[in-house]
Amino acid sequence: MPRFAANLTMMYNEHAFLDRFAAAARDGFDAVEYLFPYEFRAGELKARLDANGLTQVLFNAPPGDWAGGERGLASLPGREDDFKRGLDTALEYARVLGNRKLHVMAGLLAGDQSGETQRRTQRDVYLKNLAYAAQTAQAEHITIVIEPINTRDMPGYFLNRQDDAQAICAEVGAKNLKVQFDCYHCQIVEGDLAVKLKRDMPGIGHIQVAGVPERHEPDLGELNYPYLFELIDALGYDGYIGCEYRPRAGTSAGLGWLAPYLNAAR
């Protein structure tokens, strides 16, 4: 039976962030994820999790200067020390929150190189940083995940395809380095989701969903999510599925798609 985690960055925006934990629990979620926790003390977030019986399943390592346009540091030459400091911060939060999966963002293609030379340089940096992150996180029993992101939403992002992400994980060779399979991003870039899920499931560490193309609830658009949820279950995925979508209107009012799964779980 699929298990779902509310993404508190995108969902429940009608509430202040710290109040979103209780709102998600009232709607039947037992787990949450979000992009970044760093505006709040880890203990404060942990208290919200505990008060509402929630499990923290995923967040992102610091991405650099997000407001200034940075979208991760892992592939950026010259930013290795910043990446390592950010990883240390993320692991400190993970210890307090009980979080066991950490998304490390690759970053954008650098503008001072050209073509394949640029990609090769960044790929080398990426591999070294991911190897370091996986080794460091292993002691904490934490899985590092990398996510291909579509270039419509995030132009210039370094990692876009599932096969490339799987190849990078295989090259690094760490058991706790896996791919984050976001159905929304994959459909926009590649399509053929069912085949890719069957092909790659052993290397998938986390799954996220949203409707395509508008990124609203997973009950409208190009993807047949009931079929995909059944397939994901049949393939033996035992993690949470992150609901990383922007509700069309109120979050709670748009959860009709989720009710059958919550009822079945009860």
From TrEMBL:
Record-level Gene Ontology MF annotations: isomerase activity
Listed InterPro entries: HPT_OtnI_isomerases (IPR053398), HyI-like (IPR026040), Sugar_Epim/Isomerase (IPR050417), Xyl_isomerase-like_sf (IPR036237), Xyl_isomerase-like_TIM-brl (IPR013022)
Keyword annotations of the record: Isomerase
Highest taxon above the source species: Bacteria
Gene3D superfamilies: Divalent-metal-dependent TIM barrel enzymes (3.20.20.150)
Residue stretches making up the Xylose isomerase-like TIM barrel domain: 21-259
NCBIfam families, per database record: OxoTetrIsom
Entry similarity comment: Belongs to the hyi family.
Xref: PANTHER family: HYDROXYPYRUVATE ISOMERASE, ISOMERASE
Stated name of the protein: Hydroxypyruvate isomerase family protein
